[in-house]
Design goal:
This protein has 764 residues and is mainly β. It contains 6 helices and 56 strands. Helix 1 packs across helix 6. The N terminus is likely disordered.
């Protein structure tokens, strides 16, 4: 951004009431000396400022002026130079030159930041009594003149031209926004004029916010509510694209500085055609010449205060010119006066729905100084040209408009305004479950309209199309939270909208499985029900006897096909059910026989014969520990039971049919301790390796005595050891061939004592 030389001179523009003090005005030129300004540009601006200074000090004796150059180096180092202290000498006022160097870039050389430098001047107290630019002593009017091409502001650190303080990195101590200017106006009652060499609307708007009120600028003005001279327009700002001020520009500057002194008032009330316009001046200094020009070709040059009656409606520029007796002070003020035609009252009113503001548009012909609205419902009147009013009830209201111009021109008109009824939309609705019909209860009311004439539109909030009707029913396909909206409307188009929240709980899904159902055997039902959110908390089963547990069991007393229904309830009260048919299968009939019927420990082998019916598979459990104690054969044979001792074994046969149904039967298999006694009748003790010894064979005994006698009754052999044999000898010699008698006394495992007798033939 190329920066230009910046001058600031502070002055006042005219307002409706303008005043100044002759002979005591201090004017300050502030020059923004940026490093990027070329020598040619600086020279052009210097010549413009010198022309203003020369004509100012010659035309307004007693005025003083000062010149201050300023610049900002880096991001926060603000500099200034009082190039010309206050002087009334035109030659001295032009005797100043550039204070800083030129050339380079904005990142290297000086950059103008007016709020920061203004802060530095304030911090150095140059404006106070005794300061280098004393604005206090003498009680003079203070005028500040700003010649600038600066931007509105920038937030970049150490960058660019500023008219406002927007960055603490650039100006950490300057007051924000337009604060430095407003403080100067408040402290010293200074008035500011800005000549802006910039075509940017936003930048000119910032310059207008700095300027004081009273000028003719009507463009955009940046918000500056803190301006002690008032916000808004007009402002003492004008702008161009040239650094060279023409004589008309200089004349404008001199007029704005306004070093003369008098005041004049003009009519502020409505002046109707034929009314008298009164003009009054308050001359502060003695005058030798005073002239009024009423703007219609007539005037007055004798009266301080005067009056005039205009013959035609229109706008007239009234000018008052006054000179002081010594011609040291001269001032001029021009203001428009509007002469209005007679009033013809009228207004337009829109037809609205109750609760909506009725807009009343004033279409009265002629200038209105004031007006009053009476709305026909007892409400007080408003004084704005146009009005709006909210009626509490529907109906037809007589609205009255009274228009007035300076309490002289006035008229009245009355028109009826229609306010249509608006229904009060309302309904109730209950939370429901997914897929179940939701039917809201429409409780809409209306005051004057026919309730049956209303139309209702429902939006159930899930993206589905709206549904018309008074109380429609809607099934939500998805669970969730929704907002139901009702729009109720009259035939006149007056509508009201209301909403209610609704929660649609998810529907559970009832699912179950069952074991293979077999006659008179337990069937287990397994719940597999689900719900998208929450949980299933209730179950109801309809098999015989019923159940409310989650995974129940039951038995069927007969075979066949039976329906079973499961109804589940979620924690939000939503229900689902499902029905399945359970086929109850018949049981097989297990049975078996075994042989031998008498089983002894010395030969515990058994054969089983399967006599079951209705079965395709079998399982045997022989009820003993050891190998081969089970079998899946149809007829297991042979099964060897333990032979160590007697025992009773509960043999179990499980029969399984083609449906997986099974039944079982138990039978006892008794293994008894068997008693066996065998005595050979002959043996041949001839050492040929065959039948050389005699031995009793027995089982089931626990005590044993064996004796052999010869024919004379003599005992020739005795033993108690069942394993001991007789070798045919007596006293170490073989007995002779003969027939001998034996006696055996045996105690069985059951403690039975048995005696056995027999003959033994010894044959060599």
């Amino acid at each position: 951004m190329i920066k230009k030389l910046l001058f600031i001179v502070f002055l006042s523009l005219f307002s409706l009431l303008v005043s100044a003090q002759c002979g005591c005005t201090k004017i300050v030129f502030i020059v923004d000396n940026s490093g990027s300004i070329s020598t040619t540009e600086f020279t052009d601006m210097k010549l413009s400022m010198d022309s203003i200074a020369t004509q100012l000090l010659r035309n307004y004796p007693g005025s003083e002026m000062s010149v201050i150059q300023y610049a900002s180096q880096g991001s926060a180092n603000h500099h200034y130079s009082v190039s010309v202290p206050f002087t009334s000498n035109p030659v001295t006022a032009r005797n100043w030159s550039r204070a800083y160097g030129t050339g380079g870039t904005v990142a290297t050389y000086f950059q103008d930041h007016l709020p920061g430098s203004m802060y530095q001047m304030r911090d150095d107290s140059i404006w106070n009594a005794g300061g280098t630019v004393d604005l206090v002593t003498g009680g003079c009017n203070i005028r500040m003149f700003l010649f600038t091409d600066a931007l509105a502001g920038s937030t970049g650190a150490g960058c660019c031209s500023h008219l406002t303080s927007v960055s603490t990195t650039v100006a950490p101590l300057a007051l924000a926004d337009f604060g430095e200017y407003n403080l100067h106006k408040t402290t010293y009652q200074s008035e500011w004029t800005v000549y802006h060499v910039n075509s940017g609307v936003a930048n000119r708007a910032a310059g207008a916010a700095i300027a004081s009120k009273g000028g003719s600028y009507t463009g955009t003005i940046s918000p500056n509510p803190g301006d002690p001279q008032g916000a808004g327009g007009p402002r003492k700002l004008w702008w161009s694209t040239s650094f060279v001020l023409t004589q008309p520009d200089i004349d404008t500057a001199l007029a704005n500085i306004n070093a003369g002194s008098f005041s004049a008032s003009f009519p502020t009330d409505t002046i109707c055609l034929g009314d008298t316009a009164y003009f009054t001046s308050n001359i502060v200094f003695p005058t030798s010449v005073l002239k009024w020009d009423f703007g219609d070709g007539t005037g007055d040059s004798s009266n301080t205060s005067t009056k005039h009656i205009y013959t035609a409606a229109g706008t007239y520029n009234v000018t008052l010119i006054a000179w002081s007796a010594d011609s040291s002070c001269k001032d001029t003020i021009t203001e428009p006066v509007v002469i209005h035609p007679p009033l013809i009252p009228d207004f337009l009113a829109d037809t609205v729905c109750v609760g909506t503001a009725t807009t009343l548009t004033n279409t009265t012909s002629g200038f209105i100084n004031s007006q009053k609205w009476f709305f026909g419902d007892g409400d007080s009147a408003l004084t704005r040209p146009d009005a709006s009013h909210v009626y509490a009830l529907p109906g037809v209201y007589p609205v009255t408009l009274v228009v007035n111009s300076s309490n002289i021109c006035f008229d009245t008109i009355i028109k009826n305004v229609l306010v249509n009824d608006v229904p009060a939309a309302d309904f109730t609705i209950n939370n429901e479950c997914q897929f179940l019909g939701v039917t809201p209860v429409n409780t809409t009311t209306v005051i004057t309209a026919n309730l049956a004439s209303l139309t209702h539109t429902w939006d159930f909030g899930d993206g589905s199309p709206v549904i018309p009707g008074t109380n429609p029913t809607y099934n939500y396909p998805s669970d969730g939270s929704y907002t139901v909206r009702l729009i109720s409307e009259t035939p006149q188009g007056c509508a009201d909208t209301t909403t209610q929240p609704i929660v649609i709980s998810p529907k559970p899904r009832a699912i179950f499985t069952a074991d293979t159902a077999c006659l008179r055997q337990i069937t287990t039902f397994t719940d597999l029900s689900t719900v998208p959110s929450g949980s299933v908390v209730g179950w109801n089963w309809t098999f015989p006897g019923g159940s409310t547990t989650q995974n129940p069991i039951t038995t069927y007393a007969s075979s066949g096909t039976f329906p079973v229904t499961l109804t589940v309830t979620s924690d939000s009260g939503c229900i689902d059910d499902t029905t399945a048919f359970v086929v109850v299968r018949p049981l097989p009939v297990p049975n078996f026989t075994f042989s031998p019927s008498e089983i002894l420990t010395f030969n515990p082998k058994v054969c089983f014969t399967n006599t079951s019916s209705g079965a395709i598979g079998y399982f045997w459990d022989f009820d003993f520990i050891g190998l081969n104690n089970t079998s899946i054969q149809t007829d297991p044979c042979i099964v060897e039971f333990p032979n160590e001792s007697e025992g009773v074994y509960n043999v179990k046969l499980v029969a399984i049919n083609q449906y997986g149904c099974r039944d079982s039967i138990y039978k006892e298999v008794v293994v008894e301790e068997g008693f066996v006694f065998y005595a050979p009748s002959i043996f041949t003790p001839n050492d040929d390796g065959k039948n050389d010894v005699y031995q009793i064979f027995m089982s089931g005994t626990k005590e044993f005595q064996f004796m052999v006698f010869n024919r004379w009754g003599e005992q020739i052999f005795y033993t108690q050891d069942r394993n001991e044999t007789w070798d045919g000898k007596y006293k170490g010699k073989l007995v002779k061939n003969d027939v001998y008698v034996f006696k055996a006394i045996v105690t069985t495992e059951r403690n039975e004592v048995k005696e056995f007798y027999g003959h033994i033939m010894v044959d060599y």
